[in-house]
Amino acid sequence: MPIFLDRHDLTGVTATEIAEAHRSDLEVQGRYGVRFLTYWFDDTRGTAFCLIDAPDIETAMRVHDEAHGKVARDVIEVDLSAVEAFLGRISDPEPAACCSEGRVDPALRTIMFTDIVDSTAMTERLGDVRAVEMVRAHDAMVRRALHDKGGREVKHTGDGIMASFDDATSAVDAARAIQQAFEAFNLASREKLRVRIGLDAGEPVADHNDLFGATVQMAARLCQSAEPDTIVVSGAVTGSLPGRFSLVDLGSRHVKGFGRPVEAFAVSWR
């Protein structure tokens, strides 16, 4: 069946009320052969979006009308792959574990940085609005890999994401998945997105849900030194990796802020 994305203007409605409306949709949907896959809510703008698998728009809106009366203002037919790239999910997320929010583990971690190549030139070429859409596509693909591989987003850097992992293997698996996702995206998109990724392992300093220290700085520097479409890792990362990864020794390189040369390796991801 076709997939539809609708938009509701719901100023003054709370996130709890939106969640209850979605639950009502799920209770009614079976009567009409419709599936409400997920929803998003922007509480700042008072706007909600629903992703719906339905025979047609009219049937989908009939579920809304019967469930709670909040019929959408706009509805468009969409492609699932495009929705996943830009919004990050095509089904309801699993409930978050209780006690995990805000947790930062100060023990041994692998730190990852992603960076959109030539982001400033992209903004100048596309304009602010379209460039923001491309950054959101980047964010969605990176966050999907973090979710799948057990990573935690530490912060957004404007044209990239900093993330933390419990172990190097998961971090490198995520980095490879990110590059593979961008390769698939670029095959289908007129406007290309290229990223570089850097990783280091160590014991960062935790403070106010952020991470600091030499490990973080090294991962950021390795990311900055990487070529487009590559993954560059430190010797500290490679020492914890199983033999299934293919690595290319890049030799020693001087990294800004570090007195001694650093052993760097490129991870094959194709």
Describe this structure in words.
The protein is an alpha+beta fold and 270 residues long. Helix content is 37%, strand content 28%. It contains 8 helices and 13 strands. The strands form 3 sheets. A 7-stranded mixed sheet has the order 6-7-5-8-11-13-12. Strands 2-3-1-4 form a 4-stranded antiparallel sheet. A two-stranded antiparallel sheet has the order 9-10. Helix 1 crosses helix 2 (57-67).
Could you say which overall geometry the principal axes of the C-alpha atoms support? elongated
Estimated helix fraction: 25-40%
- Order the strands across the largest sheet as they lie in space: 6-7-5-8-11-13-12
Question: What string, H for helix and E for strand, traces the elements in order?
Answer: EHEEHEHEHHEEHEEEHEHEE
Distance between the termini: 33 Å
Determine Rg (CA atoms, Å).
21 Å
Characterize the main sheet.
Answer: 7 strands, mixed
**Total strand segments:** 13
Mean pLDDT: 86
Number of helices: 8
Low-confidence stretches: 96-106
β-strand percent reads 25-35%
Quick synopsis:
37% of the residues lie in helices and 28% in strands.
Strands, helices and their partners?
Blueprint: E1 3-9, H1 15-28, E2 35-42, E3 47-53, H2 57-67, E4 74-78, H3 80-87, E5 109-116, H4 119-126, H5 128-149, E6 152-156, E7 161-165, H6 168-188, E8 195-202, E9 205-207, E10 210-212, H7 214-225, E11 231-234, H8 235-238, E12 247-253, E13 262-267
Features:
single chain, 37% helix, elongated, alpha+beta
